[in-house]
Amino acid sequence: MSDHEITKPIYVQDIKTHMDTKVNGLELKAIAKSFSGLTALNNVSFKLSRGAVLGLIGPNGAGKTTLLNTVSGLSKPDSGEVWLDGVNITDWPAHQIAAVGGISRTFQNIRMFQGMTVLENVLTGLHAKLNSGIFSTVFRLSKESDEERNARKLAMETLVSLGLEQYCNRQADQLSYGIQRRVEIARALVSSPRLLLLDEPTAGMTPRETNEVMELVQSFRGSDLTIVVIEHKAGFIMNISDQVIVLNFGTVIANGQPEDVRNHPRVIEAYLGVDDAHA
């Protein structure tokens, strides 16, 4: 390749050429990431089968959110690789990972668009797939096209599936914390992702709301949707997960089925301390 040649980016129309249907799922290979000399991720490697639910747990500051940021392209690793369905997406920009890779996520801190309705907030989850532009679709700056009508229909169907249809015309940032969390999940789901990353999806929720989210995640088990969940509620993680990974100081200290991880000595030590673990 000459110095003037530019590697062609992978666009949506090329995805079948690049994605290998025989290699399904998410794989991280020796991911390392540091910030100002502090290690956030240290040689993190794991495989997650397509359609499985991975619970990601660990003490505060263990590197869990940094890991999600690395997978979604918001933060590039210092070394290592991220693979999705047989394709190395490590160097893809975040917008390409969302549009082509089919990755959606929620955040630890709720990010509602102020002054916009619930339906409009969910519509923004389709921004990477709309040719007409999200602002035209949300604010109807021109005559509504078939694409925009279909987008609104899909957003409404997603709200119905999460039991949020009664809030569709309410201003999103004026609703309760638990409802806003569910709206954020709807926004992540509306684009029909292949990989869904959930960062503490039940934070601030009541026990009833937590159970509703648990049932929602469980309903996807065995489907084509692969899910990675960060959550501090151990019962939630153990009930929804096919696989659990525990991070401590950026290092994987346990990786396996929920029951095996729950009783792992290093996990008990990380959460309770050496003396309490021995006791």
Write down how many β-strands occur, each being a DSSP E stretch of 2 or more residues: 10
Which series of helices and strands comes N to C? Answer: HEEEHEEHEHHHHEHEHEEHHH
Beta-strand percentage? 15-25%
Query: Which segments are poorly predicted (pLDDT under 50) over 5 or more consecutive residues?
Result: 1-18, 274-279
**Average of the residue pLDDT scores:** 83
For the largest beta-sheet, the strand count, sense and barrel status come to:
6 strands, mixed
- Judged by helices, strands and strand pairing, the structural class is alpha/beta
- The separation of the N and C termini measures 63 Å
CA-atom Rg in angstroms: 20 Å
Strand order of the largest sheet: 6-7-8-3-9-10
Counting H and I runs of at least 4 residues, what is the number of helices? Answer: 12
CA-based shape: globular
Helix content: 25-40%
Descriptive account of the structure:
- By secondary structure, the protein is α/β, with parallel strands linked by helices.
- 35% of the residues lie in helices and 21% in strands.
- The protein has twelve helices and ten strands.
- It has helices spanning 15-18, 64-72, 94-99, 118-123, 134-139, 146-161, 177-189, 207-219, 234-240, 258-262, 265-272, 274-278; strands at 26-35, 38-48, 53-57, 79-84, 87-88, 103-105, 195-199, 226-230, 243-248, 251-256.
- The protein has a six-stranded mixed beta sheet, with helices on both faces. Strands 2-1-4-5 form a four-stranded antiparallel beta sheet, with helices on one face.
- The radius of gyration is 20 Å and the shape is globular.
- The protein starts with 14 loop residues before the first helix and ends with a helix.
- The model is unreliable at 1-18 and 274-279 (pLDDT under 50).
